[in-house]
Specification:
With about 220 residues, this protein is of the alpha/beta class. The protein is built from nine helices and seven strands. The termini are far apart.
Amino acid sequence: MTHRLKIGCLAAAAATAIGACGRGGQGGTADKAAGGSRDRSAVRIIMVSHGQTSDPFWSVVANGADDAARELGVRLEYQAPSSFDMVRESQLIDAAVASRPSALVISVPDPDALARSIEAAVAAGIPALSVNAGDAAWKRLGFLGHIGQTEYESGRAAGERLAAGGARRVLCVNHEVGNLSLDTRCRGLADGLAEAGGTMQVLGVSLADPEDASQRIRGALA
């Protein structure tokens, strides 16, 4: 299985969740489709992400999800705000819930900002998984599970590895300031470095302006 399809298995996991729970936004037809029938055409999964398909990272996720949906024979709709915008993402989640999908897959970069919309989805009985962002909040928000890495541990491991290689002053480039997952990763990086006496500086940049981001990084490294 390719890396893209491994990421795309979130669609498969969502379809499995419908069958495992025996419930879904489209009722019995969708449940039977996900629970073992070869015809899964009634299963409709909506993925709401904070990242756009124009982003090199999220384009891989979207393509992988599309591949998995085709393999499973389910329908997948990928939705995202035009920029990093929690108000708009919450609106997309609300609209998705109102359309009664079979399942939801949601990235959660700001749990507090998205909590009301996510809790409404759970209250409506729609099986939901978090993906990429949300590892520290998925249980309390009512998700069935989380697909992604543990951000603090990942950052800490990176800090320890850099420290072992002799690094003592490290720049953590954050392209989405306010994304709890990235903030947590940088915090883990700082703690991993601190054990060896190293320090970490966070530099906020915007992917919407790559040239400005490059200049900021060059300036910080000068």
